[in-house]
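Hi V.,

You were right to ask for the full record rather than a summary. Here it is.
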Amino acid sequence: MSAKTKSEVLSGFKMHGLTLRSEASKYLVEVFNHVDNSQREDCLDRIIEAVQRQQLKSSMIDKATCEAAVQECNADEDEDSGNTFSVIDAFEVPRFTYAIDRKKFIPSSSMGMKPPHLHSDAEAKCSLFRERYTTLHQRTSRHDLFTPLVLGVADQTKKFQLKPVEFLLGSTVKLGDIIVLGMLTQLKEGKWYLEDTTGCVQLDLTNFHNGLFTENCFVLAEGWYEDQIFHVNAFGFPPPEPAKTTRSYFGNTNFFGGPGAVSCKASAKLKKIEEENEEAMMVFLSDVWLDQPKVLEKLRTLFMGYAEMPPTCFVFCGNFTSKPYGGEHAKIFTDSLKNLAKVIGEYPTLTQTGRFVFVPGPQDPGHGTILPRPAIPSCLTTEFMRKVPNALFTSNPCRIQYCTQEIVIFRENIVTKMCRNCVRFPKDGDTPTHFTKTIICQGHLCPLPLHVMPLYWQYDNALRLYPLPDLIICADKFDPFSVTQVDCTVVNPGSFPRSDFAFKVYIPATRQVEESRIED
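Predicted structure:
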C-alpha cells in the first residue's frame, strides 16, 4: 500500500515539474496513510497548490515545505465553516502579476515589487496598462479561435494568429488578414492608434462590433496593413472567459481576497452551506439620500418587511445626501446617520443580527473622486456604529464573499461616463447589454481614460475582474437593469429615490436577481 501511495505522490508532483526529496516523500506517505482513498486525489492537489504558493528556490521540495503545505491545508479545513461572509476592502485585494515565462500568476510581493503607495512614480502608470494587456493577451491566446491546429484532426474550425504591432511596423509590403490585440488610444487629435508593448500603429476605423469602445480599452482589430496605416475591417473586444475556465488553468489561487488562503470556490463545506441556506438574500440600494424624509419613510417600510427574517446583508450605496452642502456637509451627514440609526433601532432583530454595508458615492464626505475610494472617515460614523454594531463602512469599490459566491460592488456613474466617452455609440441603443459586454471582456470595472476617471495607479488591481465574479453591482443613476453573460451577472439597482424607490434583491442559492419596489 505504501509503495502505491508513494508512486501516486511522486507522479503527482512530477506532473507539476516538482521533485520530492526522500524525507519529504516519506512524510507525505505517512500523511496519506490516514486519508480515505476517495479523498486522496483531492488532498494531493491541494497540497501541491499550497507548495506552489510558497517562495520556492528550486524544484526540489524538502520536508519542511511539505509540512508547511499540510498545515495550511488543515487550517483551511478548520476555517471554512466560519468564512461564510466577509467584506473585502479595495485596499486589501491581493496583488498578482502574470509571469510570461512561467505562464502563471505570482503574488507581486514574491516578484520583488515594493508595497503599493497612493502617490507612486511614473513606472506604476506604465505597469497599470502593461499588466492589463498581459492578462488579456494570455486569456485571448488560449481561446479556441487562436489555439494552433491539431495535426491529424479533420473538420477543425479556421484558426487565427495574434500578431504584435512590431510585426506590422517591421513590414515593407502589404499585409492582409492580420489580427492584433492592443489598446485603443488617441496620440494625436482626431487620429486613433492601436498600441501594445511593442509599439503603436495608426488606424483607419470602419466597422464595429457590439460594445462601448472607449479610449484606453483593449480591442481585437482585424484588417490589412499598408503605408504605415492599419486598415481595420472588423473591430471587437477580446473574447471573455468564464471563471471556471480561468480556474482550470490557475487552480484555486485566491485572486478575489478574503480570509481564506485558497479560493472559496474550492470549499465543499461552504458550497453545502450555500445550498442548504435557500432563504439567504442580499438587498442592494443606491443613492440612499438619508437627508430626505421620504427616503427614511421608505426605509422604515423596508425594514418592517424584513424585521422578522433579516436578509444576509443590506448594501447601501451612496450618495447618502441629496446634494453636497459645502461646509455644512459633514454635520448634515452625521445628523442623517443618527436618523437612520433611530429607524433601525425600532426593529431590535435588525439591530442585533442585521448586517449593513455602506459603500460611499462620488459626493459623499471624505477623500476625492480618485478610485478606489477609501471608506467614509470614521470620525463621521463612530456614533452610528455604536448604535448599529453590525454596520460596516467600506471602500468603493468593495467585494463581498458569501460562501462560494464572489460579489463586486461599484458605486459610480460609470454607464453614463462610458456612453459619453465611447468612440461610436451603438445604433441599437441597448446600453445595458453593451455595457455588460464591455466590462466583462475588458476584465475591468472602469476601462476609461485616466483623465476621465482617475485611478490610484498601484491599486488598479482592485478594479480588475479576473477571474470573473458571480455578481457585479454597478450602482449607477442609469435605469435599473440586470444582464447575464458567461455566468456573470451585472446588475444596476438604479437610483432609489429617482426610480420610485426600486431596489434589487439577490438570492445566492438560485443566483436569481429580483426587482422590488416600495409602493406608496
